[in-house]
TrEMBL record:
GO terms for molecular function: 4 iron, 4 sulfur cluster binding; electron transfer activity; metal ion binding. PANTHER family: ION-TRANSLOCATING OXIDOREDUCTASE COMPLEX SUBUNIT C. Keywords: 4Fe-4S, Electron transport, Iron, Iron-sulfur, Metal-binding, Repeat, Transport. The gene is rnfC_1. Transmembrane segments: none annotated. This is Electron transport complex protein RnfC. The keyword Signal does not apply. Residues 290-319 form the 4Fe-4S ferredoxin-type domain. It comes from the Bacteria. One of its GO terms (cellular component) is membrane.
Length: 442
């Protein structure tokens, strides 16, 4: 198979990064990739989906990874996996001799190891420039579930219609389930036997970078986990604070200790992001030097500064995100061509151990197994979003009243960066807008 052919299969079958921002996979398939990297670092605490999926489908995923390396002409195919994932490593070791190009790189249990920029440095020693793409360093990164979706598209001719989602924390039976895209968060949580607290809050994603969701929100191609938390949990309270309060608190109690910058994973890789300098400038409304504001563009929103580092429980990440959004709205683009400084010598000693992070966030008691169930959950209705990826939303090609079958394309890729969207259950189309298609099962 050549690159163009594989790209076409990926775009038509709607394969995008299964997590994060949902970057269309076909755009990562290029002959500029010298190294391809499989991300099995499970960035967020409590999440176990990728190690489980890779353990269960080790052969299929490795075979696909090797095929992608062959197709793009990469000389190395590295699986970045945390050394504590012993069962998954054992499963990989059973097949690794069959794929001489594939190697494992064992990673420490630190956060945010799954951040592409951090992972690339750890596994290859290459530093992606601030605001740059991994491919500029000759690297393309794919997560485990994305590669499994590539396998299904290539080998089984199946488009992306379902998602594995872990349901953890305040639920009867933590579990990882396979659900049709477009079902509700509530339907997913029900698979864990229901919640164990009154007025639960659904935290979608992970504890560090997730967001508070509504029970009626649809599952998308990037929904990895639902954390069910009590409404007075520290993570929920932090998320619900407003930026104006955050700024006032910063002005009154930031002690300029610099810990947020010292522990910032991007700063330690030589990127010009400096949360302490930003907090000082923003809380004093000091605009003599605009760099701390402009450099907010290089924040990855990992949350180390506000969820772990700050002794005063301030919110540099939230305020930086506000600034980034404001600059974008004003049409101010991030500075181009910025080169990183050398990696900080102290970086090794400033990594955030995941165990300490979980303890600080009050999550240790939720660190339990969430076994993977492969049987597809049955729902009666789905609301399939037309934009589940970075780029242009797909364009609906069905009308109200049409009968569709699972896997049928219901929205075609738009011009530019875009992928197709497919029916995730068989049934009748009951609603079509420029944002979604609703299908009711027969
Ligand atoms: S969220 Fe904080 S720690 Fe993370 S990259 Fe941004 S400034 Fe650095
Ligand atoms: S860690 Fe907190 S108190 Fe220290 S400089 Fe950063 S924002 Fe201020």
């Amino acid at each position: 198979m050549d690159i163009k052919e594989l790209q076409k299969i990926m775009q038509e079958n709607g394969v995008v990064g299964a997590g994060g921002a949902g970057f269309p996979t076909y755009m990562k398939l290029t002959d500029k990739a010298e190294i391809i990297l499989m991300n099995c670092a499970e960035c967020e605490p409590l999440l176990k989906l990728h190690r489980q999926l890779l353990e269960k489908h080790a052969y299929e995923i490795m075979k696909t990874f090797d095929m992608v390396a062959e197709t793009v002409g990469a000389s190395q195919a590295i699986i970045g996996i945390k050394k504590s994932y012993v069962q998954t490593i054992n499963a990989l070791n059973q097949h690794i001799e069959e794929f001489p190009r594939v190697k494992m790189h064992l990673l420490d249990e630190v956060y945010p190891m799954g951040d592409e920029v951090v992972l690339i440095y750890e596994a290859t020693g290459r530093v992606v420039r601030p605001g740059g793409l991994p491919i500029e360093q000759g690297v393309a990164v794919f997560n485990v579930e994305t590669l499994y979706n590539v396998y299904r598209a290539v080998e089984e001719h199946k488009p992306v219609t379902c998602k594995y989602v872990s349901v953890v924390a305040e639920v009867e039976n933590p579990v990882t389930v396979k659900v049709p895209l477009g079902c509700t968060l509530e339907e997913v949580v029900a698979q864990a036997g229901g919640t164990t607290v009154k007025d639960p809050v659904y935290f979608v994603g992970g504890p560090m970078m997730g967001r508070i969701g509504n029970g009626s929100d649809p599952v998308t191609k990037t929904t990895n986990a639902i954390l069910v938390l009590p409404k007075d949990h520290v993570i929920v309270m932090k998320k619900q604070r407003t930026s104006s309060i955050d700024l006032k608190r910063a002005a009154s109690i930031c002690c300029h200790c610099h810990t947020c910058t010292d522990l910032c994973p991007r700063h330690n890789l030589g990127h010009p992001i400096d949360p302490a300098m930003f907090m000082m400038a923003a809380s004093n409304q000091d605009f003599r030097n605009v760099n701390p504001y402009i450099n907010s563009a290089f924040c990855s929103s990992c949350g180390v500064c506000e969820m772990y580092a700050c002794p005063q429980s301030l919110a540099p990440r939230t305020l930086l995100a506000d600034m980034k959004g404001g600059l974008r709205k004003a049409g101010i683009r991030p500075p181009q061509g910025v080169q990183p400084k050398p990696v900080q010598e102290s970086r090794e000693y400033r990594k955030v151990p995941e165990e300490r992070l979980m303890a600080r966030l009050g999550l240790t008691r939720y660190d339990k197994d969430a076994p993977l169930q492969e049987e597809l959950v049955n729902v009666s209705k789905v609301k399939v979003l037309l934009s589940q990826h970075i780029g242009a939303p797909a364009q609906a090609i069905v009308n109200v009243g049409d009968m569709v079958t699972e896997g049928q394309m219901i929205a075609q890729p738009a011009q530019g960066l875009s992928v197709g969207i497919h029916a995730t259950i068989s049934g009748k189309v009951t609603e079509v807008t420029d944002r979604h298609v609703v299908i009711a099962r027969n």
